Amino acid sequence: MTTASPSQVRQNHHQDSEAPINRQINLELYASYVYLSMSYYFDHGDVALKNLANIFFTSLMRRGNMLSN
C-alpha cells in the first residue's frame, strides 16, 4: 500500500495518533473494495456461485454501515 498524503482538514490531533487512525481507515476501505470485487466475481455467469456472492455482498454492506457511522 502507498503512504497516505497529509490531511487537508486539520483537527487538534497529534500526528502520532492521527497516522494509525488514517491507516485503519485505509485498511477498512481496502477490505470493502476486496469484498465488492469478490462479490462481483462470484456473481459472474461462468463462476455461478451466487450464494457466495451474496455472502461477500452482505459483508460489504455491513462494513459500509460501520464506515458511514
TrEMBL record:
Keyword annotations from UniProtKB, A to Z: Iron, Iron storage, Lysosome, Metal-binding
A biological-process GO annotation: intracellular iron ion homeostasis
UniProt similarity note: Belongs to the ferritin family.
GO cellular component: autophagosome; lysosome
PROSITE patterns given in the database record: FERRITIN_LIKE
Subunit structure: Oligomer of 24 subunits. There are two types of subunits: L (light) chain and H (heavy) chain. The major chain can be light or heavy, depending on the species and tissue type. The functional molecule forms a roughly spherical shell with a diameter of 12 nm and contains a central cavity into which the insoluble mineral iron core is deposited. Interacts with NCOA4; NCOA4 promotes targeting of the iron-binding ferritin complex to autolysosomes following starvation or iron depletion.
Domain of life: Eukaryota
InterPro entries: Ferritin (IPR001519), Ferritin-like (IPR012347), Ferritin-like_diiron (IPR009040), Ferritin-like_SF (IPR009078), Ferritin_DPS_dom (IPR008331)
Task of the protein: Stores iron in a soluble, non-toxic, readily available form. Important for iron homeostasis. Iron is taken up in the ferrous form and deposited as ferric hydroxides after oxidation.
Stored SUPFAM superfamilies: Ferritin-like
A GO MF label: ferrous iron binding
The reaction(s) this protein catalyses: 4 Fe(2+) + O2 + 4 H(+) = 4 Fe(3+) + 2 H2O
Annotated protein name in UniProt: Ferritin
Pfam family, one: Ferritin
Organism: Neovison vison
Subcellular location: Cytoplasmic vesicle, Autophagosome; Lysosome
Annotated residues for binding of Fe cation: 28
Domain (Ferritin-like diiron): residue spans on this chain: 11-69
Principal subcellular localisation of the protein: cytoplasm
